[in-house]
């Protein structure tokens, strides 16, 4: 079963599993969401197009056997006005906001959520100028509540490297520092290079040196032949 991660684009936006392909809970405030009712898909595509053009990558999708089975999205909080309604807002100035992460139910339990979070962290480190990722978590998710499925469970966030940054009984704000992630990555790569260097050194067998022929000490004397001597072999 092959799997790979790719950027979220307008081409694969419509392929997202679950309700997220048309959900605009994070992208617009309540007033704007009411105004675009019935046109959510078009408005979400327009939002993504603007972000890709003016800010950069804001999402990843994961495919299994070429089927899109999960995704993750993020952006600066100023571009996700739906976050302003949380009691633990606003997001820290040095952080971007992780808004959604979703894996189709039949593909859960395979580590795809962790893969998506790691892919997000690598992308943001490469982007530069971002100190952390923050997210609003649900302590006890309540699926019956409107838009509750748009908020990630705290247990998931803790499992993939977030910590509580601002506590709250219902929706704490969680944080993952990219500096720590970068340091860990550098230490891992350095350790890996050292390990490969040791293995390579063990595999390099020294070549045997050519045997040396001892040379006679002292000056070399020529042997003179007596006059009239002939080599009978010729």
TrEMBL record:
Annotated spans, Disordered: 205-234
Alphabetical list of InterPro entries matching this protein: Acyl_CoA_acyltransferase, GNAT_dom
Pfam (any one): Acetyltransf_1
Keyword annotations of the record: Transferase
Keyword Transferase: yes
GO molecular function: acyltransferase activity, transferring groups other than amino-acyl groups
Domain of life according to the entry: Bacteria
PROSITE patterns: GNAT
Domain N-acetyltransferase, chain residue ranges per copy: 23-179
Name the UniProt record assigns to this protein: N-acetyltransferase
Organism: Nocardioides pocheonensis
